[in-house]
From TrEMBL:
Its cofactor is a divalent metal cation. GO terms for molecular function: metal ion binding; mRNA 5'-diphosphatase activity; nuclease activity; nucleotide binding; RNA binding. It is found in: Nucleus. Residues 38-388 form the RAI1-like domain. It comes from Bimuria novae-zelandiae CBS 107.79. This is Decapping nuclease. The keyword DNA repair does not apply.
Length: 394
């Protein structure tokens, strides 16, 4: 005790900062019937316009109209208007839309968790993805846990992907960037701003030469539950396969919105090997989880050749995917994902329990353990000031 403080620094063990760990294995504990889940119901929505500015309307909604098969998904790459966040978006637009809804109804949209759908997708799919990694921040505010992606980690990951050496044959074309483009090009070829029945033929045909941009978006915010946990989730929806039913068409609000999720994937050969099927079914895990969480009933796959030519489209019912995989390679199990998600959320409620602290939620590649550690005091900007003030006023 009399040791000078300088040597205490040298000898004392690192302060036991409280780290809580949630091991993913063994998966058997999560098998069996899934925890109760409710069909997600839309609470509100918003769009981003062509400058990626938040707008509180349906202007970002697009309608599905089958694309021309044989189209080249590489076309127009040099004109790609690629939006990427340069500052931390936190949960701001989601909370802004929720506050706006609350102003209209006067009713507080309480939930145990509020986050972007993407965070839940990462949590849910972790049991079947050895390479999964994430860094999130969580904070407890007024009885609700708010979870966001750690923006610096995402920016670093993006920079790393962008700097990977190109595999693509064309000189100077980074593989990753072109693959990102393909996905958005497929969306542009498959969507219209108005229902196809009321869209002039010229407009439909002009999609092939339209510039591709991901600035505009439409986001749906849903209320859902996983086991005993109530969630408010916000996420981008690609389009509608039929007009959106008005909320008044079902007083209980139990309506299925015919959202679609568009995905590109490399076409399978006529006689796929086990390896081909496995690769595709692993991809289906992400497709399914992402759509399941927002209640998107249909996924439309754009099959493409290695060179990026659209060779066909296929519609999959989101709800049928887990069964398909069970009868196929069995490489993942949707019930395990749901039960795991319910268990992780329960654990987070035990761990993220001090108001006004920021917690880091982390999964390192191949570690198999989700870790939570205290990051610091203050809200960390996770819950916007605008939203806090609104809730105080309520
Ligand atoms: P694909 O999924 O068809 O490749 P989303 O499918 O979620 O609607 O996203 C649309 C497109 O954005 C994707 O289309 C892909 O091109 C791009 N994209 C989404 N997430 C990405 C990521 N993590 N890295 C690279 N591109 C991504
Ligand atoms: Mg999308
Ligand atoms: Mg998509």
């Amino acid at each position: 005790n009399l040791t000078p403080s300088s040597s205490i620094k040298d000898w004392a063990p690192a302060p036991t900062s409280s780290i809580s760990r949630f091991p993913i294995q063994p998966l058997n504990q999560f098998r069996g019937a899934s925890a109760s889940i409710k069909r997600p119901r839309e609470v509100t929505h918003f769009s981003y316009d062509a400058t990626h500015t938040y707008v509180e309307d349906e202007s970002g909604i697009n309608y599905y109209c089958p694309p021309r098969i044989g189209a080249d998904l590489k076309e127009g790459f040099d004109m790609f208007r690629h939006y990427e966040d340069t500052t931390d978006p936190h949960l701001d637009s989601l909370l802004r839309a929720v506050a706006s809804k609350e102003r209209k109804t006067g009713v507080k949209e309480h939930a145990d968790f509020v986050t972007w759908r993407g965070m839940m997708t990462k949590l849910m799919t972790a049991p079947f993805d050895m390479f999964a990694e994430f860094e999130m921040l969580a904070t407890l505010h007024d009885g609700t846990i708010y979870i966001e992606e750690d923006f610096p980690s995402r920016a670093a990951q993006r920079a790393q992907e962008a700097s990977r050496p190109p595999k693509w044959q064309d000189p100077g074309l980074p593989n990753h960037k072109m693959m990102t483009y393909w996905g958005y090009k497929f969306e542009t070829l498959s969507l219209l701003p108005t229902p196809p029945s009321s869209t002039p033929r010229e407009v439909i045909n002009a999609r092939g030469t339209a510039p591709v941009s991901n600035y505009a978006q439409h986001c749906s915010i849903v209320r859902t539950s996983i086991g005993p946990h109530k969630l408010l989730l916000g996420g981008e929806v690609d389009g509608l396969s039929a007009p959106k039913p008005s909320p008044s068409s079902s007083p209980e609000g139990n309506i299925q919105i015919p959202w679609i999720e568009l995905k590109t994937s490399e076409a399978l050969p006529p006689h796929p090997s086990h390896r081909d099927t496995l690769k595709f079914e692993r991809k289906l895990l992400k497709f399914w989880a992402q759509s399941f969480l927002l209640g998107v009933p249909k996924i439309i796959i754009g099959w493409r050749s290695k060179q990026g030519i659209l060779t066909g489209v296929q519609e999959l019912e989101t709800g049928a995917i887990p069964g398909m995989v069970r009868r196929g390679t069995g490489c993942w199990d949707g019930n395990v994902c749901i039960n795991f998600a319910a268990a992780v959320l329960g654990w987070l409620r035990e761990v993220v329990k001090e108001e006004g602290k920021v917690y880091r939620v982390r999964l390192g590649k191949k570690t198999g353990v989700v870790e939570v550690r205290e990051e610091g005091d203050g809200g960390g900007g996770i819950v916007s000031r605008e939203f806090r003030e609104w809730r105080k006023e309520m």
